User: Which sequence fits this backbone?
């Protein structure tokens, strides 16, 4: 199958959606499919070998300038192509207007307008490249913020089926200011009717996105997220019993819930003694979240616990493996309803039991793996109670670790992700295109109206 995956880069940040899209493309290639992974906005950064093109379409600098200065689009591409060079785009600061959702209302709306937006020249360039150089059977958009691409892609590639992934864009929408948020959701719903099929990263996420987009639930196919599972290491040693080490691996921001884990850690230190505990925190910290991070550090300093907390920053794959293997328990107690849970899978794959809130994708991940404990969301005491239980029960901890590692290898590998995704692609290919379906409904409505008028 010839497949083009259009994936939004996240500048210099490790991004869960980028990691998933790259892993999916890698696995599909390994299975013999002809796949091209097209990065847009910025290059993709992953902690595994990247397979994306070394060329960025719909570059962040170009589309921003086209939004601010409409005349910029008239400058010949040979004069401004250097602005899309990957080396330049990799250096974009994540705290800039190029990635801050509160400043992106007009740009997001223009992107959703697609061929009618200010970035139409960039969109046409990408669609023409795909038509001239690749001719895919299936085109996958990495999220529903890109639904404005559908019409132009269809104009150049009328026989291709267009599938849109749903990976957590509602958190971006919630950060948009009004009136942009309402207008963006309305435009997403309008453009969603033209997409052939949607794939969600969890069963949970299908229902809220169907409601948000105003589409039938059966147009969304849940597909399991998957990871490259680590090889067995016969020389691996478990961490020492003390200090009991709790780990967090995610972006350092309020929505990921690090403050709730710090709350729970403080409670545990009061109950058990700080000298018996350690908290290890890893993950990217953007400019806009530095105040949040600083407040947590100051709080730990005031409570005399700063010496019991390690702040590791971003970690590469080797460092991540070492980090996870140093833990007794793992938690990312998100405030929002996470539709993926990628770090949770990575922890369980290393036989580390997890403690997660009972919302988002976490219930289905733990139901299918048996690798952890669910607690009431946004409840530091419940989180502390569950962690303390695992601290006092090494047998339960070991059993959860074994179950989680086996469950991930059974249910959430790149192979199972590719299997689910290919099933969705085949469904799209075997059905009439969304445009044909919309035209058919419009024709039926027109005939019904004419008959009513004649009557």
Assistant:
């Amino acid at each position: 199958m010839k497949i083009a995956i259009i994936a939004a880069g996240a500048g210099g940040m490790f991004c869960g959606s980028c990691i998933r899209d790259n892993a999916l493309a890698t696995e599909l290639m390994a299975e013999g499919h002809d796949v091209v992974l097209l990065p847009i906005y910025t290059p993709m950064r992953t902690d595994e070998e990247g397979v994306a093109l070394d060329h960025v379409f719909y570059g962040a600098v170009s589309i921003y300038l086209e939004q601010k200065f409409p005349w910029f689009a008239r400058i010949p591409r040979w004069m401004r192509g250097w602005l899309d060079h990957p080396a330049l785009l990799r250096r974009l600061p994540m705290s800039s207007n190029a990635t801050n959702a509160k400043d992106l209302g007009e740009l997001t709306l223009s992107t959703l307008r697609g061929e009618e937006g200010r970035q139409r020249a960039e969109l046409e360039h990408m669609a023409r490249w795909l038509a001239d150089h690749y001719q895919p059977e299936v085109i996958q958009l990495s999220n529903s913020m890109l639904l404005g691409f559908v019409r132009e892609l269809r104009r150049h590639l009328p026989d291709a089926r267009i599938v849109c992934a749903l990976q957590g864009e509602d958190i971006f929408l919630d950060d948009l200011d009004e009136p942009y948020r309402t207008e963006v959701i309305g435009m997403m719903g309008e453009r969603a009717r033209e997409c052939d099929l949607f794939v969600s990263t969890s069963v949970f996420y299908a229902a809220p996105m169907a409601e948000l987009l105003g589409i039938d639930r059966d147009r969304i196919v849940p597909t399991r997220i998957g990871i490259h599972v680590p090889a067995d290491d016969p020389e691996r040693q478990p961490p020492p019993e003390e200090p009991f080490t709790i780990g967090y691996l995610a972006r350092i921001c309020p929505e990921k819930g690090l403050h709730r884990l710090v709350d729970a850690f403080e409670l545990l230190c009061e109950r058990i003694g700080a000298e018996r505990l350690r908290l290890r925190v890893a993950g990217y910290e953007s400019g806009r979240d530095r105040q949040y991070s600083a407040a947590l550090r100051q709080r730990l300093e005031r409570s005399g616990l700063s010496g019991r907390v390690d702040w590791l920053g971003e970690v590469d794959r080797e460092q991540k493996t070492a980090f996870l293997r140093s833990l007794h328990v793992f938690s990312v107690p998100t405030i929002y309803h996470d539709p993926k849970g990628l770090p949770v899978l990575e922890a369980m794959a290393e036989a580390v039991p997890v403690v997660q809130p009972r919302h988002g994708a976490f219930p289905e991940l733990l139901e299918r793996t048996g690798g952890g404990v669910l607690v009431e969301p946004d409840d530091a005491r419940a989180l502390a109670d569950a962690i303390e239980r695992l601290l006092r029960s090494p047998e339960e901890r070991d059993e959860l670790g074994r179950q989680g590692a086996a469950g991930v290898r059974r249910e959430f590998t790149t192979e199972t992700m590719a299997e689910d995704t290919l099933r969705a692609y085949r469904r799209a290919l075997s059905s009439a295109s969304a445009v044909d379906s919309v035209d058919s409904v419009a024709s039926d409505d027109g005939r019904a109206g004419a008959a009513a008028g004649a009557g």
